[in-house]
Amino acid sequence: MAIFKAAAVQMRSGKAPERNVRDFEALVREAAGQGATYVQTPEMTGAIVGDKDARAAAFTSEDRDLVVASGRKLAAELGIHLHVGSTAIVRADGKLANRAFLFGPDGSTLAVYDKIHMFDVDLDNGESWRESSAYEPGTEAVVADTALAKIGFAICYDLRFPQLFRAEALAGAEVLTAPAAFTRQTGLAHWHVLLRSRAIENGAFVIAAGQGGKHEDGRETFGHSLIIDPWGRILAEAAHDEPGVIVAEIDTQHSTDARKKIPNLKNARDFAVALRAGQGALRGAAS
């Protein structure tokens, strides 16, 4: 059991990594100043850039990335667990990864996670996204066993794939994360209900730092960063789309208690799906 303060940092990242890093550093310091020992920033902390040529100019390899360097230094200086929700990283093969980092209080890298599910959608009013045209999807779920808690990783669109969160909960994650740059359109419709659902169905805390507002590249994100307890209660919310910090106390015993009250992780069963057209059966899995 551990009790600690967690913070979600809400940002409005622009096209220039240098400016975003300055905002990132100021907000992380604000969160640590409020007593947070785990601080999470949103998806695309380093830059939000839609144009292909601009992306090439803004993004670089992990060893040269400004957010990575700053995050590692800040974590050590402030003595915190710093979770960079994600930033774009040029991989060794030249492809881009939408990558999260968790830095420990000594500045070491405790975990790295590449977003698995690509946001390839066509929404109302002509809003269309093809994340797979720019980024290479990850292939591994990640749970970090830290001094604070066992932390499971996800990024934005991953939120719509409950099997990822269930697999991490079954691996022992007490805190699930979903840093995001949710569009305003989808955020208004689904943000709160999806995040609360992931908490309830897994008996886990959920922490989701968001991007918010109108960005330089024209997109608009929802904001409303959230910290939710294992019973689905909202502990803290940035009820707007402006940059800022929210903080809440995390007691991992509450995850244990919730899973004892409703032991659905233990009670899940494998099952078959019967097809009425005589095509046999599909297999379902408890996980």
From TrEMBL:
SUPFAM superfamilies in the record: Carbon-nitrogen hydrolase
Hydrolase in keyword set: yes
Keyword Hydrolase carried by entry: yes
Domain CN hydrolase: 4-252
Native source species: Aminobacter aganoensis
Keywords linked to the UniProt accession: Hydrolase
Molecular functions (GO terms): hydrolase activity, acting on carbon-nitrogen (but not peptide) bonds, in linear amides
Protein's name according to its UniProt entry: Putative amidohydrolase
Gene3D superfamilies: Carbon-nitrogen hydrolase
InterPro entries per record: C-N_Hydrolase (IPR003010), C-N_Hydrolase_sf (IPR036526), Nit1/2_C-N_Hydrolase (IPR045254), UPF0012_CS (IPR001110)
